[in-house]
Amino acid sequence: MIDTHAGEDELGSLERYLDLAPRAVAVSRECGPFTVFVRDNPRGHPLYARPRLGYSRPVSPEEVRRVLDFQRAIGVPRALEWVHETTPTLLPAAREAGMSVQECALLRLGRFAPTETPTGYRVHEMTADDPQTGAVLAAIDASFRDSDRMGPPESSEQKLRMRARLLVLVGAFDTLGRPVGGGMHNPRGDLTEVTGIGTLPAHRGRGIGTAITSILTGTALREGQSPFLSAATRSAVSVYETVGYARVGTACIATENERG
After folding, report:
1. Which CATH number fits domain 121-243: 3.40.50.150, 3.10.129.10, 3.30.70.20, 3.40.630.30?
2. Which of 29, 76, 98, 258 could form a disulfide with 36 if both were Cys (CB 3.0 to 4.6 A apart)?
3. Could you report the per-residue pLDDT of 66-104, keeping only the tens digit for each?
4. d(Cα 69, Cα 59) in Å, to the nearest integer?
C-alpha cells in the first residue's frame, strides 16, 4: 500500500535529489522533456535519462522514441528512470514506445527501528583507505550476479566519492573477516538514497541484508540526512519495512527492448 499522505513537497524533494545525484559523476544533455545523464568516467556504472526537473506536461511516445534515438546516437544505454506519481504519463508512453518497464516500490524512512547484526557476522561503515573497501564492492557486485565468486576489487572512483562524502559504504563480514556483502548511501544535502544492498548467495536468509540496511540508515540519520530507497520485490520491501521504511510511491526503470 502506498502512503497516501506523501504529498507534493515530499515527492518534490525526491525529484530534486534524483536530478542532482547523478551530476556528481556525469554531464547532462537536454532532449525534449528529458535530461540525459552521461558518465564522465566510461568505466562507471551506466546512467539513464529522466524527466527534466519541473517538467509537468504530458510525455508522448514520440518524445520517448526521440530520447532513445538520442541515447543511441551518443552511444549510451537506452534507459529511463522516473517517479510515476510525478510523471504519470511516461509509463504508458514508454510502453507504447516499446520499452520494458520495471515498477519498484519507492520508500522513505518513517520511524527508525534498528536491528541487531546476526551472530557470526559484523557490519560496519568502511573508509576510503580501508584495504577491504574494494573487496566489499566486489562482494556487492557478485551478489547482484547471484554468484559467490567475487571479481577483482576496483574501487578508485568510489574512493574518490567516499572522500568527498558523496558515498557512504557499509561492509558485512564473516567471522574470518571475509566480505559477504554490503550497501551504500549517497548523500546530497539533507537527503540520501540507500542503494546497492547485497549479500553473497551462500550467506542469505540470515538477516545480513536487514543489518546492512539498519547500519546505513543509522549512519545517514546521524549525519542529518533523510534516507529513501527503492525495492523491486516484495521480499526486499519486507526487509526495509522491518527497519522502518514505508512506501510513498513508485520508481520506474525502463529499458529498450531488443529490436529484431
Report:
1. 3.40.630.30
2. 29
3. 999 999 999 999 999 999 999 999 999 999 999 999 999
4. 16
